[in-house]
């Protein structure tokens, strides 16, 4: 059983799961990543491969923070985010990414920058987009779930997209074997979608995480020779339709503020902005 805490921060355990899910239910779309991790592991650190810190006030859970490869504040206020940052600042940095609501990440970084090394990149105001209805454009009927035989075509596109987006190859950042395993895991789970014409990839995207309430998509990519032909909007529309039919009723993603082409494509599909995220990468 977890140690009772009325005020302050403690690592959450399995007996805190109910309170944690009540916290994420306040905004199940913005907090889909944390809820997905909690549901899949029951907050057992052995399966999390990380910690989930909780902040308590008057005996109730008011905020949380995922502390692993990703540092992700969950719910709560800016003051809660600062409290988590002060706790993290007393430890050696092990995270590679700090990501979440802009106001929370900004406040956390104001604390952490005093003791952590400079980041590789900061993306301050990334529009967080959602859709909970049928797409506004015709879905591409050629977009489908990937199968094992697609791996040889799909994997290079995943590497290219990650490198283009993040600025470093995932085979360097995550390790080649680990990244290949992640791509195969998403394929096996039915979370990987692509259009492949005559053995050549045109479009691809994946579901990164999902709960009964929401799913977040990632890795949207159109091969360079097929860009500016409408494949992004039609492909994302197909993914939205498939996800809403079999995974979760609401679909979200976040995009770099400067990526005008992607933002325009998502707007055509019917996504609307609901928040701003920030991502700090080390």
UniProtKB/TrEMBL annotation:
Location of the N-acetyltransferase domain: 145-282
Listed SUPFAM superfamilies: Acyl-CoA N-acyltransferases (Nat)
Keywords, in A-Z order: Acyltransferase, Transferase
Molecular function (Gene Ontology), one example: acyltransferase activity, transferring groups other than amino-acyl groups
Signal peptide residues on this chain, from the entry's feature table: none
Keyword Ligase attached: no
The protein's name in its UniProt record: N-acetyltransferase GCN5
